[in-house]
């Protein structure tokens, strides 16, 4: 069963989404390939999945996974002759022919071409044939050695159990009969003009006749009744030759649930990992805070300085987490456990979640990440303004932290903090009045938490992979444009890393390899978002850009940027 699931289009989590859609895959009937059967079966007409083909085919096959006959072969064998061959024993020639035909699907390139789209049913059938072949090989072999016979019996039992599991799985995972499903489409829901196979379901090309919120439940119920089991629908747009077509993708719900189950993080190990990362993040925040204490600080000074910073971080994380889960619950989306990302530079690099259920529409894909980032921005801003009102400036009072220039050196992603609190020295190396020579620039701990919170939120708003910014870009511009933006962002972060910024390099590697790829499509990818959400996206993009790339403090040492305001260590 495990090997059969290799055909599933999965994506690793945290690493990736469980499946993806590519509507432009060719139909099976357009370029049929030969699928080697274990025995010669009566000739069958290959399934036809276009509307015109279905009119020419009065008796559609009940199963979508057909065995394509050998070309030019007309000597069919009757079921009686097959039964006689099975009962009376196979000749050597027949055994050799069967062994040649039963090619393992893992190495059969012809089968891979024939498949076109992954099918659980086809994979299970071929795995079952492979187990049958191995059992027959063991039955034909006779060994008087008791040791080898013992191990062969163990292998035979294992193959028998595997075959039984595959037979049970075969009953659960049957490909949908597209000819039956096509009759469910009509003028009052979605008018389908063509259909092609996709995995164990299909892609119906046509056009909507009513709003999706009215069509979805009605059509989903009719298709489930026709299929005899629950199905899942996606409404997407397919662009080809500057022509946009509406498509309805239908898949068995059991297979989608299986793919989510295979990638879920809501497991005991997932929750343990979440707790471990949470403890590690609290530790990095505490260590990072100690770096900014004034020389000769006592433990009481550490408590007085670190507690406000620590509390500020927790406030930002808590507010954003509550806003995210409330918004996800409003759309009926299940989230994985939250995973904090520790960092010895900023203490924390944000929170990550995976979607563990289907998104109902693009609004959910947009609103959930916006809820996290917008609430984090607001909480950070409130902390910074509160500190400014209390102290009259961002530089704090007796319990101020001292931000050393090394914290900003060669890191444009942190230049926003230095832009607010001011540089340590001027271009000539003279220490500026707002700094303390040999110590750094003072800043209120609560204000520092707010400023760092804005930087970390902006990092997560970069349009890369499945970061919050990547999800927003996918909702606003579609999957193709989001992929291009993701590539460009990864490239820019790589350039920053090669120029000397450790933070650019680390975040670029994390975003590319741990949060890369696309989010799974929403069930409704056709209904537009509306101008108000595009406006929100523009505002967030502007705040992200102004936060990450001001370079007002001259923090980049490269000659192509402005020179730094400090020289060497202090």
Automatic annotation (TrEMBL):
Instruction: Report the leader peptide range.
Output: 1-15
GO terms assigned for molecular function: metallopeptidase activity
Q: Which UniProt keywords apply?
A: Chloroplast, Coiled coil, Hydrolase, Membrane, Metalloprotease, Plastid, Protease, Signal, Transit peptide, Transmembrane, Transmembrane helix
This protein's record includes keyword Ribosomal protein: no
Membrane-spanning ranges: 269-293, 302-323, 374-395, 484-514, 534-552
- Residue runs in coiled coils: 121-179
Q: Its membrane topology, per UniProt? A: Multi-pass membrane protein
One GO BP: proteolysis
Q: Read off the InterPro entries from this record.
A: EGY1-like
Q: Which cellular compartments is it found in?
A: Plastid, Chloroplast membrane
GO cellular component, alphabetical, reads:
chloroplast membrane
Q: Where is this region: Disordered?
A: 22-105
What function does the entry list?
Probable membrane-associated metalloprotease that may be involved in chloroplast development.
Q: Which family does it belong to?
A: Belongs to the peptidase M50B family.
Task: Give the protein name, as stated in the record.
Answer: Peptidase M50 domain-containing protein
């Amino acid at each position: 069963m495990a090997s059969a699931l290799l055909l599933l289009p999965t994506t690793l989590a945290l690493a990736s989404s469980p499946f993806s859609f590519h509507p432009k895959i060719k139909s099976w009937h357009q370029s049929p390939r030969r699928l080697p059967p274990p025995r010669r079966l009566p000739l069958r007409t290959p399934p036809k999945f276009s509307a015109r083909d279905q009119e020419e085919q009065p008796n559609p096959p009940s199963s979508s996974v057909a065995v394509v006959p050998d070309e030019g072969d007309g000597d069919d064998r009757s079921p009686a002759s097959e039964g006689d061959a099975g009962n009376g024993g196979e000749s050597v020639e027949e055994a050799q022919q069967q062994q040649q035909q039963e090619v393992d699907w893992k190495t059969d390139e012809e089968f891979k071409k024939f498949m076109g789209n992954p099918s659980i049913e086809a994979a299970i059938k071929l795995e079952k044939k492979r187990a049958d072949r191995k059992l027959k090989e063991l039955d034909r072999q006779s060994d008087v050695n008791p040791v080898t016979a013992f191990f062969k019996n163990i292998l035979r039992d294992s193959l028998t159990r595997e075959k039984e599991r595959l037979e049970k799985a075969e009953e659960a995972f049957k490909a949908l009969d597209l000819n039956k499903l096509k009759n469910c489409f009509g003028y009052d829901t979605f008018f389908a003009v063509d259909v092609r196979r996709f995995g164990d379901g299909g892609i119906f090309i046509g056009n909507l006749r009513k709003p999706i919120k009215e069509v979805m439940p009605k059509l989903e119920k009719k298709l489930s009744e026709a299929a005899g089991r629950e199905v899942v629908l996606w409404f997407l747009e397919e662009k080809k030759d500057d022509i946009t077509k509406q498509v309805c993708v239908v898949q068995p719900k059991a297979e989608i649930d299986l793919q989510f189950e295979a990638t879920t993080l809501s497991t005991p190990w997932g929750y343990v990992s979440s707790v471990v990362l949470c403890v590690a993040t609290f530790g990095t925040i505490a260590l990072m805070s100690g770096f900014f204490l004034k020389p000769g600080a006592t433990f009481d000074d550490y408590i007085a300085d670190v507690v406000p910073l620590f509390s500020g971080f927790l406030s930002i994380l808590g507010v954003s987490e509550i806003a995210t889960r409330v918004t996800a619950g409003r759309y009926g989306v299940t989230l994985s456990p939250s995973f904090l990302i520790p960092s010895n530079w900023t203490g924390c690099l944000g929170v990550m979640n995976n979607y563990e259920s289907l998104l109902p529409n693009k609004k959910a894909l947009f609103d959930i990440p916006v809820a996290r980032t917008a609430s984090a921005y607001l909480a950070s801003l409130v902390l910074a303004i509160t500190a400014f009102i209390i102290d009259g400036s961002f530089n704090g009072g007796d319990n101020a932290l001292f931000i050393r220039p090394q914290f900003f050196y060669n890191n444009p992603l942190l230049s926003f903090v230095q832009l607010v609190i001011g540089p340590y020295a001027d271009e000539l190396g003279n220490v500026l009045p707002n700094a303390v020579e040999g110590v750094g620039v003072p800043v209120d701990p609560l204000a520092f938490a707010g400023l760092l919170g804005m930087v970390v939120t902006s990092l997560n708003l970069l349009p890369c992979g499945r970061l919050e910014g990547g999800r927003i870009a996918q909702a606003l511009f579609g999957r193709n444009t989001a992929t291009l933006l993701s590539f460009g962002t990864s490239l820019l972060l790589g350039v920053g890393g090669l120029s000397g910024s450790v933070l650019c390099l680390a975040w670029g590697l994390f975003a590319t390899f741990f949060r890369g790829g696309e989010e799974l499509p929403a069930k409704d990818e056709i209904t537009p978002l509306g101008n108000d959400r595009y406006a929100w996206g523009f505002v967030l993009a502007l705040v992200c850009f102004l936060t990450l790339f001001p370079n007002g403090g001259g923090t980049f040492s490269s000659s192509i940027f402005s020179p730094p305001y400090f020289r060497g260590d202090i």
